[in-house]
Amino acid sequence: TDLYTHPDYYNVDDLLTDEQKLVREAARAWVKKEVSPIIDEHYEKATFPKHLIKGLGEIGAFGPYIPEQYGGPGLDQISYGLIMQELERCDSGLRSTASVQSSLVMYPIWKYGSEEQRMKYLPKLATGEFMGCFGLTEPDHGSNPGGMITNFKDAGDHVILNGAKMWISNAPFADIAVVWAKNEEGRIHGLIVERGMEGFTTPETHGKLSLRASATGELVFDNVKVPKENILPGRSGLGAPLSCLDSARFGIAWGALGAAMDCYDQALRYSKERVQFGVPIGAFQLTQKKLAEMITEITKAQLLLLRLGQLRDAGKATSAQISMAKRNSCEIALNIAREARQIHGGMGITSEYSIMRHMANLESVVTYEGTHDIHLLITGMDVTGFSAFTREM
Ligand code: TGC
Ligand code: FAD
After folding, report:
1. Has this prediction a pTM greater than 0.90?
2. Which residues are catalytically annotated?
3. Model ipTM?
4. Where is the Acyl-CoA dehydrogenase/oxidase N-terminal domain (predicted)?
């Protein structure tokens, strides 16, 4: 095939199963055919390519690990990671749509939903017939979601939901929203809010200079009547949404590495073709230093993610291990995007190359699902036993 070959300096592919490689090839072929030719246009116009939803479902990008009995592909965690890597090698916004649907909508319904909720929503979410979003962040509560003020009150067979969520991926077109809100005792619960419920609106967020091919919006709840049967019964407390973040952060860690690989590949190719002072710029030591550092970081991250995938499949990955991988992938991807941009000189700022788009996208990726500094504090707490998230003032 004329499919791209990704960097694999330590033969990590030898450690993958045939099924994992097939899943990756299917995602890669689909992205190349359907997305690569149109992504720049959507990025520039700041539109989400909705017509891709069906194809995303077909390659298994929606809930890759959701069991077949609920309409999912029933794949393992490494396959999930590889699909996210292929999507984000093209565009972080494309991967975002799949991450949210998989880990922030399907995962909580699968893990904490009733059997009726699973049967009602999961098969349609797996195909993309239903699209979902996840409302945790609020205007005044981003890194500190435990402080949320969105709340619901008991009203017989339903509850009344009030409040607002901000920065919600997929919100403008989602059919359902998994929303985290406090009950009258201040305990956090997940509720499935459906488009069309009176008092529920999803205004789009404009002016984003990052993740432009992904639709972002608010969720506004003005006395929304939500039937009690839409409350996720399986788990309450902040740990419930945070466990969904574990799943999403796992996928993002693989995804951001995909963006890094794309930047590296382009920089390597350009460094062999672009001639200055009579020689390819790749013959200069300073260019080689950049490329050598890039492939070193990519290789380290590939090994870290493979091991994390094995741990996750065995049910042994800790939240702190996932957090470290998310932070590391985002950090190295951003550094690699910046260095790749330098190697391209002026050409690097144009849309002829995807580098500047990746760089701008990665500014969202390093911020959402826990900022770089929040993840540093998670590792810091894990190794010292001291929480440094709050301090007396
Ligand atoms: P803390 O007191 O540490 O914990 C509260 C309870 O939660 C438990 N817990 C976890 N459970 C499961 N998984 C995890 N990762 C967990 N982390 C903590 C913890 O054991 C405790 O349980 P219990 O039973 O004792 O109550 O909570 P804290 O308020 O101090 O906050 C900790 C902190 C700062 C790490 C957390 O709030 C955090 O991760 N903040 C970052 C917020 C964040 O990541 N938001 C993401 C929003 S969604 C998003 O960005 C989607 S973008 C998707 C896209 O487009 O791709
Ligand atoms: P803040 O929490 O206000 O942080 C500002 C700065 O303060 C950061 O540098 C941060 O690291 C630092 N800081 C905060 N607390 C501490 C501390 N204790 N110690 C040291 N430094 C600290 N959310 C959802 O719920 N669903 C979504 O689908 C979703 N999609 C998103 C899509 C995009 C494009 C973006 C940009 C965001 C999205 N988010 C979503 C929200 C995202 O999770 C938050 O932006 C993120 O958690 C950070 O919150 P904040 O923006 O309020 O920043």
Report:
1. yes
2. 369
3. 0.98
4. 17-129
